[in-house]
Amino acid sequence: MSFESLGLAPALLRALADQGYAEPTPVQAGAIPLVLAGHDLLAAAQTGTGKTAAFALPLLHKLSSAGPAMTRRPRALVLTPTRELAAQILDNAQAYGKHLRISAATIFGGVGMGPQINALRRGVDIVIATPGRLIDHMQQRTVDLSGVETLVLDEADRMLDMGFLPALKRILGALPKQRQTLLFSATFAPEIKALALQFMREPREVTVTPPNTVAALVSHHVHPVDASRKRDLLLHVLSQDSRRQTLVFSRTKHGADKLVTFLNASGVRAAAIHGNKSQNARTKALADFKSGRITVLVATDIAARGIDIDQLPMVINFDLPMVAEDYVHRIGRTGRAGSEGMAVSLVSHEESGLLRDIRKLLKDEIAVSDMTGFEPSTPLRLDAGAPRPKQGQRQPRSPQRAQGGQQQRSQGSSQAHRPHGHAQKSGGEHAAGNRKRHRRPRPAAKA
Description:
This protein is α/β, with parallel strands linked by helices. The protein has 2 domains: 4-207, 3-Layer(aba) Sandwich (Rossmann fold), CATH 3.40.50.300; 218-391, P-loop containing nucleotide triphosphate hydrolases (Rossmann fold). The protein is built from 16 helices and 13 strands. It has helices at 10-18, 26-36, 51-65, 83-96, 114-122, 131-139, 156-159, 165-173, 190-196, 230-239, 253-265, 279-291, 301-304, 325-331, 352-362, 399-413, and strands at residues 41-44, 76-79, 104-107, 126-129, 150-154, 180-185, 204-207, 218-224, 246-249, 270-273, 296-299, 314-317, 341-347. The strands form 2 sheets. A 7-stranded parallel β-sheet has the order 3-4-2-5-6-1-7, sandwiched between helices.
């Protein structure tokens, strides 16, 4: 099958040829005809199989066929969970539509609203947005969604997760009821799918791989390790090929920052990407990773959506995800575009239950092997009573760090007790915030 056989506009075919695309991927071959026919769509496919083109190409075709917009209102809305994914979709849409007169803009947080407002006032055909910032514009009445003909939810499992549901319902209430709705994702849990059907009209389904599967070219490795020695084992794995680009997953934002500090101090060029980082910092970290200026990118699950690198050789789970389906999304960052990939998970005894959930989801006995010199003091448990961490639970500190903390506390105990962290009142050691402020007498009022 070729793209020509799908009935796409000649301008789109020319753009695809410019990029060297000759044949559609399975999800594109299945989804594009249904979208062009006007059906609502549920599409499930592995990350890296071309989901973005599967909705962007027919969307651009329909907009160009309808002719120039008569108003400045957007005609299509694409919702994504992260800024990085929004930026990636914009890049792809601009590349596919470079021979068309179709305008698009991103709307996300972490940057000023001024340029976004200006773009909306000039008029755009496609708005690619994250829910939070889009609601900000709705509240300020700087965006009018009454002309939206097509709604796309990318990474739909996240978008329909309970954390996004209130914002999503609010946005849906501002859209016309007569519209086309497309949901694309790597996974669709049954409860998420049931929820999606509430606001879709007789959707068609495209599933090119069994639910919750990972790429066949990815090899999986689990190394049991004590939680206190995880960082040392991570450094050992990374040192086996210091030039290899590696994406490391941390469960928390704070944990990601601490891990980057440790890696940089150990001579590994690393950066973190998560929701607490400014948009400029996130963009720079991702650009440095893609260009090879840093070799390790530490990310949280949400922030990693939108990381699009065709030949990423390794993904390491420093922490296992709390939800087994997130393992599929994480591992989907490697083994793409026909390249081989490696997924390594560093698993402590406290995470045994999470590993059990992942193996049950994948219906696969992921190999577990000790790493010489890092054998755990307590083996993993993979039975029904396997332990699992609680949300927000911290990993135990390493013995060296604990000893250092005790030394600091013992040194502090020899000094006079100063409650609330007040600085010592000698020399120039006063904390700026603890100095007394002496009011200067006001000058007499001038006559």
